[in-house]
Amino acid sequence: MIEDLVKPERTGKKYKFQEPIDENKIPETTWAYLAGFIDGEANLNFEKKKRPDCKYGFNWSLKIQIYSGNQDQIYRLRDRMGTGPIYRGNRKETPYVTYTLGYFGNNLKVVLERTLPYLILKRKSAEIMIEAYKTIIVSRPSFVREQKIQKLYDDFYYDFVTRVHRQKYLIETGKIILDSLEKELSNQPCEKGKE
Asked: What is the spatial distance between Cα 17 and Cα 13, in angstroms, rounded to a whole number?
């Protein structure tokens, strides 16, 4: 069966196959815990990569990258899941060392399907990635298939952009409210004996 094939993980310059996730051994609380990481500290990547050797000159790449600055935490999460490569490196936004746990191929589908009931912020993106994965794996390359995946890709990035703008709006609104509360509190007279 095609879905039983698992794509290789990168370990240095060599590739090896990522062990499949055994869904039955992982308790439901672990899926909920992982969903919290995905909502807060993960990137859901849906990329269109140029490949001249492919029929249409590109291929599609889907993966989840979960970040943490806490090495023990990321290794404990991987131990709970039973598989997943961990990369050590620096993220652009921070000078600190970060650890990245990654899932792709069939493991990506398993992780997204099992965490979907618990996802809040990235739920729509996860649904789109599951549909894209199924479309990529099941159907042969064709113009219709590529149009469907391109539409999913566009929907994925539309959801991402609106989510980012929504978060920025909420942060800005929160700052305005805090500033107005601070001004209001600073204008109130203090009671005797309290300063």
From this structure: 13
Sign (positive/negative) of CA torsion 75, 78, 83, 88? Answer: negative
pLDDT in tens, 92-129: 666 778 888 888 888 999 999 999 999 988 999 999 99
Residue among 77, 9, 97 at smallest CA distance from 37:
77
Q: Where are the domains of the chain?
A: 2-186
Q: Which helix (H) or strand (E) holds 178?
A: helix 143-187
- Whole-structure pTM value: 0.69
Q: Classify domain 2-186 at the CATH superfamily level.
A: Homing endonucleases (3.10.28.10)
CB 99 within 8 A of CB 42: no
